[in-house]
Design goal:
This protein is mainly alpha-helical and 101 residues long. Helix content is 48%, strand content 0%. The longest helix is centred in the last third of the chain and has 18 residues. The chain is globular, with a radius of gyration of 14 Å. The termini are far apart.
Amino acid sequence: MLDYHTEVSELPLMYVLTESTDAMWMADANCLDSPDELFMAASGKAQGYQAKRVCKACVVREQCLEYALLNRLELGVFGGMNERERRLEKYKRRREAKKES
């Protein structure tokens, strides 16, 4: 159980990456019980596919993806997408925003 007395070295990687206090959604993430290395594997590796399977059923997948996009996280799987997929998602969103304006 995480609390205010938990040492930083004991925290899952995702908690350490954020400086935001509005990231309480992370406590509901499926990845908390998985090793960080699973989500930081190189794109296309079997571990990346395993990480995406964990994300697929996660109730906070959308928040995780938005967090990664907003904070420009370049490495690892977040919200079920690897680095390349997130870059494509950002590109699509920019194109859609230009069309609407």
